């Protein structure tokens, strides 16, 4: 077995053992196709107040500028689809935020994978990324054959759907590279038709500044009144475009205990949310990604939904 093939096989086997759904590998080089797309998206202000999207433009497109001497981008998927969902008579939070903040969970797994590479292969330099640095996760995962970019701009995988996190290890090790997956959206427009704020402005292009997730998490000011009545009870994030996607019929519950929700989260009603205190917020979302919006942000979102009755 060729040494590159051997290393590749070792890494993929260990990724599975660590609980990752799948692992794909790409050559670390400039993302030619993504460059004009990202530039156009930024020029049209589709990132709204997310000004951090404008930073490090060159690093976003070229991993060798992020990790010197890098040769490979190892992309990994981790399932977060829950076995139980919230009480239907409740304000909703995105499924990815039910349990412990994914940044911590995945970072630990990536560190373990990097440690394994050091132990088994030797002196390999690399960095782990979990949507916290200028890395175009979805583009790399698609390049590595883990799925294709759906019309809702999320990564989609046959037999699996899209309820998973994407993370990367960028390393200075040459490996065997995977080939991109083909697009299986066909003529389906379920996600475009279902988006209540019409954020999917054309197939494969999402205007981030119109997305419910943006309004409920990223936006710091008041939510614009023209969106009143269009949030479909989402108070943190939004899963509509994923929920209606036919490929998500294949989603299977995750096996990661850290992603299990606080028991109170599933049973809370709208009334409970409207009366939530900061103490309850801290207890239910102790280690959750929901803390990003802070107690005041969640209250703002709930008040916005309440005012629509």
Automatic annotation (TrEMBL):
Catalytic reaction equation(s): epoxyqueuosine(34) in tRNA + AH2 = queuosine(34) in tRNA + A + H2O
Cofactor binding note of this UniProt entry: Binds 2 [4Fe-4S] clusters per monomer.
Subcellular location as annotated: Cytoplasm
Gene, per the UniProt record: queG
Location of the active site: 131 (proton donor)
One Gene Ontology cellular component: cytoplasm
Residue positions binding cob(II)alamin: 60, 131, 155, 166, 213, 238-239
Described purpose of this protein according to its UniProt entry: Catalyzes the conversion of epoxyqueuosine (oQ) to queuosine (Q), which is a hypermodified base found in the wobble positions of tRNA(Asp), tRNA(Asn), tRNA(His) and tRNA(Tyr).
Family: Belongs to the QueG family.
Required cofactor names: [4Fe-4S] cluster; cob(II)alamin
Top-level lineage group: Bacteria
Protein name: Epoxyqueuosine reductase
Annotated binding of [4Fe-4S] cluster 2, by residue: 195, 211, 238, 241
């Amino acid at each position: 077995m060729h040494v590159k093939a051997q290393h590749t096989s070792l890494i993929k086997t260990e990724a599975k053992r660590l609980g990752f759904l799948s692992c794909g590998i790409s050559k670390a080089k400039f993302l030619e196709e993504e460059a004009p797309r990202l530039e156009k998206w930024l020029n049209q202000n589709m990132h709204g107040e997310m000004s951090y999207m404008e930073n490090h433009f060159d690093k976003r497109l070229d991993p060798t500028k992020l990790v010197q001497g890098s040769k490979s981008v190892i992309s990994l998927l981790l399932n977060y689809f829950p076995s139980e969902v919230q009480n239907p008579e409740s304000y909703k939070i995105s499924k990815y935020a039910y349990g412990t903040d994914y940044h911590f969970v995945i970072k630990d797994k990536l560190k373990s994978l990097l440690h394994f590479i050091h132990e088994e292969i030797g002196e390999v330099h690399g960095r782990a990324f979990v949507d916290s640095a200028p890395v175009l996760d979805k583009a790399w995962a698609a390049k590595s054959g883990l799925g294709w970019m759906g019309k809702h701009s999320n990564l989609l995988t046959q037999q699996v759907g899209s309820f998973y996190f994407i993370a990367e290890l960028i390393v200075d090790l040459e490996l065997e590279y995977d080939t991109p997956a083909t697009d299986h959206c066909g003529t389906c427009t379920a996600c475009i038709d279902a988006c209540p704020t019409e954020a999917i402005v054309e197939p494969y292009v999402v205007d981030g500044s119109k997305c419910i997730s943006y309004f409920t998490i990223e936006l710091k000011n008041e939510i614009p009144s023209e969106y009143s009545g269009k949030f479909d009870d989402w108070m943190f994030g939004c899963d509509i475009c994923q929920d209606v996607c036919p490929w998500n019929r294949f989603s299977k519950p995750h096996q990661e205990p850290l992603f299990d929700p606080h028991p109170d989260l599933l049973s809370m009603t709208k009334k409970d949310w409207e009366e939530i205190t900061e103490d309850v917020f801290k207890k239910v979302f102790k280690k959750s990604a929901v803390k990003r919006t802070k107690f005041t942000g969640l209250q703002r979102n709930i008040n916005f939904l309440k005012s629509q009755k």
